[in-house]
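<derive_structure_tokens>
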Amino acid sequence: MMVPSRLCALDFLAGAMAEAGEATINRYSTAYEASGETMTIDAAIATTKMAGPKKLMRQEAAYLAALPKTATFAIEGDELWLRDTGGGGRAHFVAAE
């Protein structure tokens, strides 16, 4: 479960096939490929190297470990779902207003 006051963020960088965001404490970036409903996210994720409270660092580690397990994605209204090969949710995002 996410710590509500420290959520993660994801931005897809148009034309660069890269994504970047906030992984609770640190900013991160990596490459991705998407076609149809399939998506792969590169496991080589670059992050800043700041430290934070252990609970938040565990949350960040779990989030960053989940991203490369993405196999498909779905956009439902203003929500983005990243799912693994079994259809299990890896991450869920709501568009910022």
Remarks:
- The chain has a mean pLDDT of 89.
- Residues 54-66 form the longest helix (13 residues).
- The radius of gyration is 13 Å.
- The helical segments are 54-66.
